[in-house]
Amino acid sequence: MASPMTYVAPPSGGKPLVSNEDGFVKGVMTYMVMDDLVVTPMSTISSITLLNKFNIKEVGSLEEKVVSFGLNEAVKLLNASLKSKKVLTDVFL
């Protein structure tokens, strides 16, 4: 799948395009991003549900990975999201 794309620059000057009032992210909260890029608020209940969903019995087998995210990673992430269901694994592992 290869299609040419054109970059469209944001308008210069004027009002900012970002609002602090709307959107998915609310206040100071932790979010979980799954391998298929589903974003959900992270809570104890959602974590336990996820462990049960993937039949994880030993919590010690889990691994947290902190990654740097810049322009190159954004391009790789966008590319992988068009081709794969395991986007984060493909880009960061």
UniProtKB/TrEMBL annotation:
Record-linked InterPro entries: DUF674 (IPR007750)
Name the UniProt record assigns to this protein: DUF674 domain-containing protein
Lineage: Eukaryota, Viridiplantae, Streptophyta, Embryophyta, Tracheophyta
